[in-house]
Design goal:
With 175 residues, the protein is mainly alpha-helical. It has 7 helices and no strands. The longest helix has 35 residues, at 129-163.
Length: 175
Amino acid sequence: MSGRFQLLVLLLWNWLGLQIVTEVNHYLSAFGIALHLDLLWLLFVALNLGRKVGLLYTVLFGLLAEAHLGGPDGIWISLYLVFWALLVTLRRHIQRDSALQMQFLSVFLQGLLFTLLSVFLAGGQADTFAYWQRILIEGALSLVAIWLLCVPWAALQYRLLQSLGCDIFADVRTD
């Protein structure tokens, strides 16, 4: 199948995942915390698909995140593009079949992404202890969730594309 079909399937699949995380965050808001699983949406695409499909996916999903999550204009798409480019650069050095490598990479990059978001979105709260205490709790929960979910989520995406007849490594071999 074509790269456009892969792009559409992954956009819909990850948008569904974003909706589920948003629903979980709705229920967690009673405790004043939220999960941030942004790297789940980028990990498989950046490590396994071609650059053209991956870049287009990242731009489109960044626009979806901009509309869905809010924040300053362009923050989600900018951060997603930076982290996609970083993952594409690192993919030669990563063994995609090594679950431990993928988990360590995703936790490290999610922590970096979460730290950048915390600083950018702090506003006037940056000097309060309560803000940083909440950020520490959210970061710990998010990193544990990323550790547990990154490999199964990537495997689900791979199996989804494989069951639909997509050769996901065709574009990567030509990059």
